[in-house]
Amino acid sequence: MNALAAASLAIAGCSDLSGFGGDVPPLATVRVQVTGDLAGVTPPGAGNPDLRVALVWGAQWLTEPLCILPPDDASAAAMIAAGCRDAFGFVPDRTAVDAPLAADGTASLALFDLPAADVMVGSVTARVAYAGIVVYDDRDGDATLTMGRANRLGGRDMGGPPQDPGMQTADLVYAASFATMTEPDTRLAFREGGFDAAAAFYPRSGCGAPLPSFSLVSAGGFSAAAAIAAQLRGELPPEDPASCREQSTDAPVALAFRPPAELRELACVERATDSSVRYREPPADAPDLTARTAACVKVPDFGSGKAHGQIQLAISGRSDDSCAGLTHYVLRGCRNDALCDLPAWDITASPPSWWPCPAQAAQ
Amino acid sequence: MWRPAVLLVPWLALGLASPRAARADDGALLDSDALRYRSSGDLAIDAGLAVGLPAALPTGLAMGVAAGVASGRTLAWGARAAWVTATESSLPWTVTHSDLRLRVTGAIQTAPGRGIIGLRLGLGGTLVHESRVRNQGMRAGLTGSALETSALSMLPAADLDAVVALHIAGPWLLVTSGGPSVDRHDGALHAGWNAQLGVAWQP
Is 0.90 surpassed by the pTM of this model? Predict the structure, then answer.
């Protein structure tokens, strides 16, 4: 009887063959559970939020020296506070997957692609990528987390970069699994091959290696002071081993709502990730400093004395910008180096009339 | 003069087919019997290379081997088998299909001179083994059915081939054939094509 049925099926051409069709299993699935009082953190006038969840691969990023060195005075401290992002914060590279947040605060993020090589850090035999999970209000309605970028003022027109208006984003981030290394975090890791524990890519020194392929890893965070002290010792800042966790992606990721002002940098990408600075020649006319914070500060030379007290004018972005950033003006220098031996411009003898800084710092 | 039905096999066998043809003889490159053929039987066995459209994949070129046996003269009957395989990829999948084509054949043919020309109809089934691998799944740590699946299915099928054979020497023939094919898959008919090239032995 079974043989007869099989023969009938064969004659009818029925088969279990799928070819290229059928459902495609995801490479990994991350489940998210969001808790907390959204109304309590929603800014006035934000309206009814359209909450979505995004998984964002992180960029390897180094802050520029001016943002990490101790400020010379209060004006410099104010400029750094207004124009520098958290030096230990998570810097997004690109969104991998996006899904709506259900009314019960849950979401499921299915990954159908591996992270590309440019978001992975390490050699081909031992590399890792980290992703954070963010909950955001999709205010621009494009169903994806729109990334912003800091705006910068222009320099004198000598073929150099014009004013870069940056990119504003309307989306507001309300929760994040990985905001900064100075707080407890949970991140999605993709590890391929071995794991280089000495790598300083969002380090979790003292914690175990991420599991092979996809896994969720957690750490308790470290203080900025501990990180700087460890750096001076030539070490990575240590995590409390008791706060470390490495587990499969089966476990849900718990997030809590927070005020968007605390998380705005999670929707900001960076132009340069290697701590390099773009210097500009001051324009003849005064730039519009409305809602910006400016300070005259020394060009960092890390104690080499090469700067000879050269001063730069550092100006933050506008206070209502989506993303923090700095514009650097110097009277003498090159685009990528204010201390270059053969300057592309030198107007120290005739600075523009609006120039507020001394040509050289007092020795 | 009528000749039996025949089919395919590799070019390589041609060199083995007529050892006398390669033997030098007193200054003559070939003796008078070198290319003489003989064919008195009704039976022909052939083998060769086969290519064609995969039975159940919408794209790709399946390649493999085929063999067959036939008996008869103007009207001949026989059986054929071919095994061909094709591997193709989409964004999420790498799919390998291995087709075992089993046919009962009937042919009508004629033999002008050293050649044989015929039309062969094959009816039967194609046993398809499918192996699907999720692309990047191994790197992502997938295991089991999330990484790889396989399936086996028998599809009713038919071929119509034009067959051309040429007596080379002795009992050996060079054979080529090709034509459309059809199989029934997922409740619908799917058209394809097959081609074969080989040698035949006709005692």
Answer: no
